[in-house]
Amino acid sequence: MASSGGVGDERLREALLAPAAGKVGEEDLEEIRSVRAFLHHAAEENRRLWYLAGPAIFTSVAQYSLGAITLVFAGHLTTLELDAVSTENNVIAGLALGLTLGMGSALETLCGQAYGAKQLHMLGLYLQRSWIILTAMAVLMLPLYLFAAPILRLFHQDAEIAALAGRLALYMIPQLFAYALNFPIQKFLQAQSKVVAMAAVSAAGLAFHVALSWLLVGPMRMGLVGLAVALNASWWFVVLGQLAYILMGCCPGAWNGFDWLAFSDLFGFARLSLGSAVMLCLELWFYMLLIVIVGNLEDAQVAVAAVSICTNLFGWEIMVFFGFNAAISVRVSNELGAGRPRAARFAILVVLMSSVAIGLVFFAAVLALRDVYGAPFTGSPDVVRAVASLGVVFAFSLLLNSVQPVLSGVAVGAGWQWLVAYINLGCYYLVGIPVGYLIAFPLRGGVRGMWGGMLTGVGLQTVILVAITLRTDWGKEAREASSRIQEWGGSAVAKALDH
């Protein structure tokens, strides 16, 4: 039955739909007129960023380490099993992770801006909509796991690697559905700055994974099957731990229980989720294709193992900058949702300064340790030498990618997912991969040529994103954030008021 409260209902509707911060620019960051003022505000912004980025970095590293530690255990079985785990983890699970993490990233825009505008009631609905859409996507991705071996052979992957990776993919189906639930939960918690709880659950999950992997692969000698069981169990440990935190009432106002209103506005929500997925997938699959293409070179098993070890280490480093990605996405979306565009722009400047400084440290560390960092992953001297030969191109990859994830976080916070998706398509797939393939095969540049050529796409994408960020009218973005909250929350609020 519809409500008949008249003026009272209208006031409630206005209160729910109006941004809490009022006019754009109200209580915004003051204009900075001196070096001292800049340093003061930069220190304050750094404090906010590291409060978010520190636990987010730990969470990203811990969750990435679930797969990376599995790769370490596999490397002490045989080279073939190392290649199979790497291929499944980077190609099959990489496709699934890209889609589910990308689609879940829509919540960074919506939950972040709604939280900044004090529209807490919408966060739980957004989370449930995302679960519905991502679970449906996981079901659609099942054929990828069921037919992994022939799919890998279609891309001319080594027959032995493809067969064993295909077998492993069947065991890893539970991980696919864990992804579908985990990433929306993460974005829901991040938007509310509840990153310490995420870090605690991830730490417990990582410890559980190390212990279980050692038990199943060591004393119980279950080999590849044991690694699969441990990885699946650990991902579900993380999912259930975070879900328990929410259901225990630790997100008051944002989580009000399961609601049928979550099934409303699914089409429009799915479109934004798809834009986020395309943007992120084009980035993640870019490096996945590096492993697939390298599998066509001579001495494929050594080449794939060397690149796999580098991309494994690369992934750990990228997780650090994914922490910055999460932090800047939350900061930008919160500030735009609250109507403070100048504060959003200043947060971007500060996080870029921090990420570039850390990127330079990683760059120097890789060059200094390039002869030894492959040894913990394999007992093969040939693979260790091949890893060392990639040191220079690997170091430049780390430096370039200290900036790129941060700029992607800005894009997500502002809601530019489709724009960045088109940029990624052009830079990575129309420039980076063709240049890399040309150097690797016709010019016989091998693995280093392939990877180095692909970096041209990363560099071009970074330059374009920097230019877009510098030219953005952040006042306009704040106004669009207010419109977006009303667009995605309007029908749900209307239905709530009518019942």
UniProtKB/TrEMBL annotation:
<feature type="transmembrane region" description="Helical">
    <location>
        <begin position="269"/>
        <end position="294"/>
    </location>
</feature>
<keyword id="KW-1133">Transmembrane helix</keyword>
<dbReference type="GO" id="GO:0016020">
    <property type="term" value="C:membrane"/>
</dbReference>
<feature type="transmembrane region" description="Helical">
    <location>
        <begin position="346"/>
        <end position="367"/>
    </location>
</feature>
<feature type="transmembrane region" description="Helical">
    <location>
        <begin position="223"/>
        <end position="248"/>
    </location>
</feature>
<feature type="transmembrane region" description="Helical">
    <location>
        <begin position="387"/>
        <end position="407"/>
    </location>
</feature>
<dbReference type="GO" id="GO:0042910">
    <property type="term" value="F:xenobiotic transmembrane transporter activity"/>
</dbReference>
<feature type="transmembrane region" description="Helical">
    <location>
        <begin position="161"/>
        <end position="183"/>
    </location>
</feature>
<comment type="similarity">
    <text>Belongs to the multi antimicrobial extrusion (MATE) (TC 2.A.66.1) family.</text>
</comment>
<dbReference type="GO" id="GO:0015297">
    <property type="term" value="F:antiporter activity"/>
</dbReference>
<feature type="transmembrane region" description="Helical">
    <location>
        <begin position="195"/>
        <end position="217"/>
    </location>
</feature>
<dbReference type="InterPro" id="IPR002528">
    <property type="entry name" value="MATE_fam"/>
</dbReference>
<feature type="transmembrane region" description="Helical">
    <location>
        <begin position="131"/>
        <end position="155"/>
    </location>
</feature>
<dbReference type="InterPro" id="IPR045069">
    <property type="entry name" value="MATE_euk"/>
</dbReference>
<keyword id="KW-0472">Membrane</keyword>
<protein>
    <recommendedName>
        <fullName>Protein DETOXIFICATION</fullName>
    </recommendedName>
</protein>
<keyword id="KW-0812">Transmembrane</keyword>
<feature type="transmembrane region" description="Helical">
    <location>
        <begin position="419"/>
        <end position="443"/>
    </location>
</feature>
<dbReference type="GO" id="GO:1990961">
    <property type="term" value="P:xenobiotic detoxification by transmembrane export across the plasma membrane"/>
</dbReference>
<feature type="transmembrane region" description="Helical">
    <location>
        <begin position="300"/>
        <end position="325"/>
    </location>
</feature>
<dbReference type="Pfam" id="PF01554">
    <property type="entry name" value="MatE"/>
</dbReference>
<feature type="transmembrane region" description="Helical">
    <location>
        <begin position="49"/>
        <end position="71"/>
    </location>
</feature>
<feature type="transmembrane region" description="Helical">
    <location>
        <begin position="91"/>
        <end position="110"/>
    </location>
</feature>
<feature type="transmembrane region" description="Helical">
    <location>
        <begin position="449"/>
        <end position="470"/>
    </location>
</feature>
